[in-house]
Amino acid sequence: MKAIVIEKTEGGSKAALTDFDEAKLMDGDVTVRVEYSTINYKDGLAITGKAPVVRRWPMIAGVDLAGTVESSANPQWKAGDKVILNGWGLGETHLGAYAEKVRVKGEWLVRLPDGLSACDAMAIGTAGYTAMLCVLALERHGVKPAQGPAIVTGAAGGVGSVAVALLSKLGYHVIASTGRTSEADYLKSLGAAEILDRAELSAPAKPLGKERWGAGIDSVGSATLANVISMTKYGGAIAACGLAQGMDLPSSVAPFILRGVSLLGIESVMCPIEWRRQAWKRLADDLDRKKLAAMTTEIGLGKVIETAPSILAGKVRGRIVVRIAE
Hints:
Distance between the termini: 12 Å
CATH topology of the largest domain: Quinone Oxidoreductase, Chain A, domain 1
Radius of gyration: 19 Å
Order of helices and strands: EEEHEEEEEHEHEHEHEHEHEHHEHE
């Protein structure tokens, strides 16, 4: 079968589209015929070798898939079931989604919700699923649109695009922060009410800034997240899920102890199955399909390796769907 395989090399790694022996798939009780995948930031890191994402060699890349169960020894699943898989070490410790088939544990799978196609599911992908986990965390924390605007950083990227669309539908006045102000019309079409130049949030943060928003979703980290926290209104909350600018957080305790601000950490790879099911149901119900289509580009498996560097360089708008079968 065709697969994108990452091999360890002297001084790094190399990815190539090649033939892979299906008999070498890893242990699991469900075999899935992969129909679509996607390119996330983590996929870009793995394929380019820019960060130590891969923990097993050789590795088939790809952390997301949607497809059809081909065979199953797991009582939850039968041949013909339509499924989604996000994370669980796929493309890191377990052979991943950029292949015509995968063999995985049945408890990792989520049933494709009614109303979503496999292509739709991967247009959402880990990025959109993570955005919904952020929304759910804000809701569990009790944050509401009446508390003020919501800031979305990295807004033109995958997480950001879906976050803008979701928050605007929930009634928030969405402030979309991006380094690509040329994408203003695109972001407004998704529901952004204001566009904020990334430069306003990238300088060193003050311990407390002017209160500007009551909620936020951040996929950038570092000084950007520090600034977002410092400008969060009393009792507000920020859901943090990414590190595009860096893993550091040069912040202060002041917003937490003087304004009661909360920082909500979002982890998608090992997220409990019930939260996954809830997130995917909400995505099927709440995400406007026209907006999803507007943020999505489709490519074939053969284009993944050449496309991967673009997502790391911040040149990808919205979501990229990968069609596995040519």
